[in-house]
Amino acid sequence: MISTIEEIVKIIKDSNNIVFFGGAGISTESGIPDFRSVDGLYNQKYKYPPETILSHTFFMNNVEEFYRFYKDKCLLPMIKAKPNAVHLALSKLEKEGKLKAIVTQNIDDLHHRAGSKIIYELHGTSFKNHCMKCGKSYTIEDILSCDSVPHCTCGGIIKPDVVLYEEGLNQDVIRKSIDAISKADVLIIAGTTLVVQPAASFINYYSGNKMILINLSSVPNEGSIDYVIHCKAGEVFNRFL
């Protein structure tokens, strides 16, 4: 059912058990390019397709080329970005006891930087990194300060704590995300095309009748969603700041 901003705002105000499921469209409002839109990374031309570069096999076999792309097209936009109205409003709703969890496909740490506490990062975060040899932790600044491939003091290669293509999601994060979604009264889905699996399938665990989609474009099976509005998520969440 196509809805209005006023309808969505009322549902949010009337609920104290909300879960937010977000994708790349949330971060584009902070200036971070998404992957699949017309202007996204997947529609730009590089020596290799982005989905190839951001795979486990490519990382293991072409780590220098991986980091050249990853630093320029992923890390630099992320570290420059600031939380937008969506991130800030969600943090506020959590403090008010209305929002119970954020389930995000994003790896940019913006929810953390906005002050939210209960965040399930399905695809990990670029702001944490570890040595593949000894496990030592490194920051995003450590990665960006290296001219080429970042190495640990022990000599091992440092890998981002992100889920690359061909890698599985963290089972504990999956369990907690599904548990939160299944217990929610209101499930807000925003800034995602719902095509990335298995993450997109998690919304099927929601059993209520207040599933809300906020997205600029239509998504598959949109007709099965209770409330739909085609706009930027910031246009809705600005009402809570």
What is the gist of this entry?
This protein is of the alpha/beta class and 241 residues long. The chain has helices at residues 5-14, 24-28, 50-53, 56-61, 63-80, 85-95, 110-114, 140-144, 171-183, 233-237, and strands at residues 18-22, 99-104, 119-121, 124-131, 137-138, 158-162, 186-190, 211-214, 227-229.
What would your notes on this structure say?
The protein has 241 residues and is of the alpha/beta class. The protein folds into two domains: 1-32 and 83-123 and 163-241, TPP-binding domain (Rossmann fold, 3-Layer(aba) Sandwich); 34-80 and 128-158, SIR2/SIRT2 'Small Domain'. Helices cover 34% and strands 17% of the residues. The chain is built from ten helices and nine strands. The protein has helices at 5-14, 24-28, 50-53, 56-61, 63-80, 85-95, 110-114, 140-144, 171-183, 233-237, and strands at 18-22, 99-104, 119-121, 124-131, 137-138, 158-162, 186-190, 211-214, 227-229. A six-stranded parallel beta sheet has the order 3-2-1-7-8-9, with helices on both faces. A three-stranded antiparallel beta sheet has the order 5-4-6. The protein starts with a helix and ends with a helix.
